[in-house]
Amino acid sequence: MEIILNPERNTWSSILQRPGPQMETMDNEIAIIMNAVKTEGDRALIRFTKEFDKVALEHLNVTADEIAKAGSDIDASLKSAIEVAIRNIEIFHRQQLIEEKKVETSPGVICWRKNIPIEKVGFYIPGGNAPLFSTVIMLAVPAAIAGCSEIILCTPPDRNGVIHPAILYTADRLGIKKIFKVGGAQAIAAMAYGTGTVPGVYKIFGPGNPYVTAAKMRVSMEGVAIDMPAGPSEVLVLADQSANPSFIAADLLSQAEHGVDSQVLLITNQMEMIKAVQAAVEKQLLQIPRHDLINSSLENSKMILVEDLDIGIDMINEYAPEHLILMVKDPDQVSDKIINAGSVFLGNYSPESAGDYASGTNHVLATNGFARSFSGVSVDCFLKKITYQKISPRGLQEIGPAIEIMAESEQLMAHKQAVSIRLEQLIESKVPGKNGIKR
Amino acid sequence: MEIILNPERNTWSSILQRPGPQMETMDNEIAIIMNAVKTEGDRALIRFTKEFDKVALEHLNVTADEIAKAGSDIDASLKSAIEVAIRNIEIFHRQQLIEEKKVETSPGVICWRKNIPIEKVGFYIPGGNAPLFSTVIMLAVPAAIAGCSEIILCTPPDRNGVIHPAILYTADRLGIKKIFKVGGAQAIAAMAYGTGTVPGVYKIFGPGNPYVTAAKMRVSMEGVAIDMPAGPSEVLVLADQSANPSFIAADLLSQAEHGVDSQVLLITNQMEMIKAVQAAVEKQLLQIPRHDLINSSLENSKMILVEDLDIGIDMINEYAPEHLILMVKDPDQVSDKIINAGSVFLGNYSPESAGDYASGTNHVLATNGFARSFSGVSVDCFLKKITYQKISPRGLQEIGPAIEIMAESEQLMAHKQAVSIRLEQLIESKVPGKNGIKR
Known about the structure:
The structure is a homodimer of 439-residue chains. Chain A is α/β, with parallel strands linked by helices and 439 residues long.
């Protein structure tokens, strides 16, 4: 990890630069994959699965037998752990479902919003070595609370055509009935366009590699919504003398094991802390696997010494970290000054792992600086809010004249007429106007 | 308007096809504009304004003198009308700002979300003949309620280098201090990348022509959020025998005057209603300007006869209209069956114009079928919700073991270690574990 001492403000943006992948180079490749899925459907999915996942599938859908087998393959201890996570995540997300009241903005003008679940949603769960069944929980729990009626899941099979039992077990536990063995950009295309086997959906959720992200961005331009533009994961730890350097080292390493492009940052006002964390990282590295991967991602990572915590807080707000751990004496006070971050962990006993699995908050968060403008996944993401207005004759008499003047000023005479024709009819039918006076 | 009688369900998707513009053809042109703004800044903005808006500007920013002049150019009656609109829109949007409570998901594990305003936002207001000051209200009111600290506005100047006084007056009335004379894709690029004069922002809002929309989609792939993918405006009226055909005609015409690519649809179970609306459209057309434009957009438009209202409701949910007017006997009952729409207008006296200007709801809504997954603009769009967790030693002992099991199952050993190292330290420091028993 690079160590940077008291950097000048005008160097921050280059110091805080993320090691992002270049999207544009893969645009052609993705266009080819997605067009093939659009035109050939399942045939293209099976072909790409053979090409990229090295397995020749006959059917894309997971069978009831496979799900039953997954259930018996999973240890009771893991099942209990999953229940703890589901319980906390449900408790936290359930309170996000708030119905607003109807409001009478002017006499006779009643307006309201209503939560309506997005009918059809699709989840992408990456494959690879780590079976991210925790992400299934993070997406399926809020979708169920919102009330989405069709939920599908795509995830790539291994070379034997098998999906990790923890993913199948968790998806089944949370009521997902349609699971498909397909990954990569082709899975995103399948959920966006629909194929013979995979139903098309209105919104696609879930993390993925740069191909998956680029495919999601592509369909988002074509009429299918996505959760957020996902990038490599990142954590920033802010520490003062009250922090425990071993804990910091463990948190930095846990983020670093996500991938070579993960970024971990430490900002502290203590030079001793930097030295202690450095020593602890070296010591702890010996106790965990994935050394090469962790070492590469540590190369992207920095320990930054600042003169005081307030400078560190400014730096945090400029960087907008996905995860922010505040190991400082008064984390509540510091957290009140944070305006750009995804999920914040307060104190020495709130590791990022807790939010990744079981504290209750969602772990699907905006990376790559998007925390400046995006929230993490919540029940809100599975709803849209339709607005309604119900205006009585009296109500239209109340606000109609203002509408007529504004529409005329915008030179939208037909907009004006839509009000005028109604107000005139009310006069003709002798409905008393505003304040009892006819127009 | 085309009349379609009792169409088969398998023909709906072609009947409900929208007359959308082709985006891809303009991709190169937009890339050139946006790259020029990125590299040359203000110089490129002034050059493109000369090229596209036919005016050579010396400065891009609107001066205090120009704003003062706009204030004196606006009639008192328009000022009062604007106050009615602002008042109702404030009342409706203010109740959207809801703070959630902290929740203890497990003993010692406290999680919460907090509304944090997006710091920097930019509004695009189109130019052209109709000065859309109403859109300024629709964006600035929720931004102010959310508490965004920097709000900027870009809008193209006319050939004299002037911005319509109603736009300037409204922006100033709502506290927008930074207004720039720049339009089109170059304005979107300026707000995304920042120039010497125009500050960069984190999220861009507002309608625009297909160039503006394509530019917004482009920056949304580069790290700047946008409100939504905007398309041509549309209205769908559902009518039974209780509807007033003159009112329907007026509402169809008011939508049709937005642009040649606007779409208006009538669905009814009454053949007589179609005939009466057709006659009323012809009659009312004589009383309003913009005939050519309205006639072109009516060519895209359809009147559809269905056997009963429930079939019409299914069709609505498939189409997902931006605006939906329910001129039916029991609009409340019908509105309960609507799952895909932007803003719904209930009854004979709730014209779309009311929502466009002054009922209180927002008029920036998802078009082009995006109402299936997108909400219209609200206070939510100007906030992000940061999540927090504060876990006590006792709390980590409560949920830590579940996290360890899940992390190990996902083969993320460093994630596990971040918990284990803390639990071990708690044992060493003799903090009693869960249920008083040490691990």
